Amino acid sequence: MPEATTQYRVESDGVAVITLAYPPLNALHPQLLKSLFENLDRAHRDPSVKAVVVVGSNNNFSPGFDIQQFRNQAGGGGIDNQINAAICSVLEGGPKPTVAAINGVALGGGLEVAMGCNARVCTPGTRLGLPELSLGIIPGFGGTQRLPRLIGLKKSIEMMLTSQPIKHEAALQLGLVDALAPSLDQLLPVARKYALDMAEGRKPRVLSLNRTDRLEPLSEALGIFEFARMEATKKAPGLKHPQLCLDAIQYGVEHGGAAGLVKEGESFSQAASLDTHKALVHIFFAQRSTKKIAGITDTDLKPRQLKTVAVIGGGLMGSGIATALILSRFNVILKEVNQQFLDGGMSRIKSNLNSRVKKGAMSQAQADVALSKVKGALDYADFKKVDMVIEAVIEDIPLKQRIFADLEKETRPDCILSTNTSTIDINLVGQKTKASDRIVGAHFFSPAHVMPLLEIVKTEHTSKQVILDTLDLSSRIKKTPVLVGNCTGFAVNRVFFPYTMAACMLVDMGLNPYNIDKVIAGKFGMPMGPFRLNDLVGSDIGLHVGKNFLDSFPERVYVTNLIPLMNQHKRLGEKSGKGFYKFDDKRKASPDAEIMPIITESRTSAGLLKDPTKPPRLTDQEVIEFIFFPVVNEGCRVLSEGIVDKAADLDVATVMSMGFPATKGGLIFWADLVGAAYIVKKLEAFASMVGPKAADFFTPCDYLLSAARSGRKLEEGASKSTSSKL
Ligand SMILES: C[C@H](O)CC(=O)SCCNC(=O)CCNC(=O)[C@H](O)C(C)(C)COP(=O)(O)OP(=O)(O)OC[C@H]1O[C@@H](n2cnc3c(N)ncnc32)[C@H](O)[C@@H]1OP(=O)(O)O
């Protein structure tokens, strides 16, 4: 383990430079903070020192408090609010003026240390922010007090509630940063001069905690707090830590910065004791660990620099994938079967880029450069130049097999051949080739240029080099990869199918689909309920994908007539103007009484209830459990079959694909908080509620049962891992 410390030197101009040093980014480990405190004291006591500059090593200031400590020590990672308050107070009000010299990022505690200094200097490209809420805590080194005093309440509350950093230009404009150094080699000279200017009275020495000039008048401030609280509740109903953050800010505005610091400490401790904090810290590390695959990323293998990728099929998926690739500067060949389809694909790519320009995510000039990276093709003439192919045609096995047989002939022997299938066995796709070592699944989620997850599906034949290259491609196109084994539905769609089936079962039992959606979205925190999602995806797609599960897992599926009937009535969802909901021309969804006869027909054919006039009365909590406990059960099968490398991968996959709330830590983390024994008991109760026709849907798998019996956590016991099979 590298040492967490600070280095101290006094320059010839009398400026003491204290360097934060803890690779890779200078996270604020308690040892580093202790050393910072000691060196500040040393500088203040040394009569030859006129001023102090704090800087980071490795060309970075600091990403904040060491998040590892939150993992090691529950309830706030052993943060000592007193020593932190002492550091900031010595920085701010000690005998010598202080300047933070910032490069890279100053986030969380990193920015708070910088705000404790009397001034801040940064380089172009620096990012500054307080993202603590994204970890379920609140700023705890004075950030709730100093940021509003430096830049005003409105912007500071926005920065804290969204956890979004700002760039150097905005920081300068807002007054968070006092001066810009034109380049990294000028950072220390500019910061030292600024510090001496303060020491020698040429510039005022500012104590941000005492400032009030940037705070809005109290009556206006109260309005800002009211609005922010409403917005926070609307965005994340039931979450406590955003309100705790606002409590601390408001208290400081009403009672002064010093009292606000005390309140901040209390609110921080409260937030740090909540499950939300544990869940979000888990997701932070889980997301980074999906890229680390034992036997691949820890070997001497190096990823090859893929430059040109061909995408076969310019439909919704293919054009989205091509967009993601050109946005990250890959050369792309988009292949279609005829000019009309090719034109359609190209115009979808253009429209994806245009919508980014409209949203301000890129300039028109950048969009033009991106578009110039894609070239259309109707044949394989240029495929010898291609480093990787991503096939994204319809889910038709013979068609995919034909394409792969062609690709084997038309590409170089080192070209990676991948398929974007969402459910089909990868071995089946490559069955007509001898290229199995270079075949891999690259399962994108729609819209592919937006959704952050990439499921990389390996078979027993896929080479390690191909897996490593695909992991690398994933990072380059800014997707989080999850490496999964080959089975129907892989990891994500495997755990997704009981979600829809359980929701349909509830409707067949007499519950109202709109109420179910309200509970699952509003109460549980999914981005939308299962029926609204069905309308987004399309009932036809749902039926098609669902068939794979009916065929592959007949012993544990629930066969409903609801989705087939929606298809029969051409209620395909948003694209046909009506599904479970009806849609206006702005695609706004509203309930539609016309679906009642369809629901009645489905209920009658399901025959789940002895007395259909008496549907069960389920609480909201029971609706949540009825839908999510079968999902957990399937997740346990995915773990025990080694489809994912570790439970945390499934957590990341569920958060980044189905929108499982990150604040609950992903599927298995949440299930462990609930407890396997309780889940088994409820699954058994649901089985007896629905009777023999659907009871098998709830049968707990061995993995879940054994965890329930032994008290073992679900995350602990994957019996075999994909990496061990490599
Ligand atoms: C009291 C205080 O108010 C409380 C706090 O300060 S809580 C901390 C608040 N800060 C944050 O939330 C920032 C967290 N970090 C980040 O957002 C991103 O890491 C970043 C923008 C700084 C860099 O992103 P990126 O370049 O993609 O690199 P990334 O892979 O994330 O990080 C590099 C390594 O640094 C580690 N790291 C980053 N920030 C860290 C932190 N604050 N503590 C510990 N480790 C950290 C990562 O885990 C990763 O380690 P690994 O290589 O072993 O996986």
From TrEMBL:
N-terminal signal peptide: none
CDD domains linked to this entry: crotonase-like
Catalytic activity: a (3S)-3-hydroxyacyl-CoA = a (2E)-enoyl-CoA + H2O; a 4-saturated-(3S)-3-hydroxyacyl-CoA = a (3E)-enoyl-CoA + H2O; a (3E)-enoyl-CoA = a 4-saturated (2E)-enoyl-CoA; (3S)-3-hydroxybutanoyl-CoA = (3R)-3-hydroxybutanoyl-CoA
Pfam families, A to Z: 3HCDH, 3HCDH_N, ECH_1
Keyword annotations of the record: Fatty acid metabolism, Isomerase, Lipid metabolism, Lyase, Multifunctional enzyme, NAD, Oxidoreductase, Peroxisome
One GO term (biological process): fatty acid beta-oxidation
Domain spans labelled 3-hydroxyacyl-CoA dehydrogenase C-terminal: 489-582
Domain 3-hydroxyacyl-CoA dehydrogenase NAD binding, residue spans: 308-486
GO CC annotation, single: peroxisome
Coiled-coil region: none
Keyword Oxidoreductase applies: yes
Chief place where the protein resides: other
Molecular function terms from GO: (3S)-3-hydroxyacyl-CoA dehydrogenase (NAD+) activity; 3-hydroxybutyryl-CoA epimerase activity; delta(3)-delta(2)-enoyl-CoA isomerase activity; enoyl-CoA hydratase activity; NAD+ binding
InterPro entries: 3-OHacyl-CoA_DH_CS (IPR006180), 3-OHacyl-CoA_DH_NAD-bd (IPR006176), 3HC_DH_C (IPR006108), 6-PGluconate_DH-like_C_sf (IPR008927), ClpP/crotonase-like_dom_sf (IPR029045), Enoyl-CoA_hydra/iso (IPR001753), NAD(P)-bd_dom_sf (IPR036291)
Domain of life: Eukaryota
Pathway(s) served: Lipid metabolism; fatty acid beta-oxidation
Similarity-based family: In the central section; belongs to the 3-hydroxyacyl-CoA dehydrogenase family.
Identification of the protein by name: Uncharacterized protein
Source species: Chlamydomonas eustigma
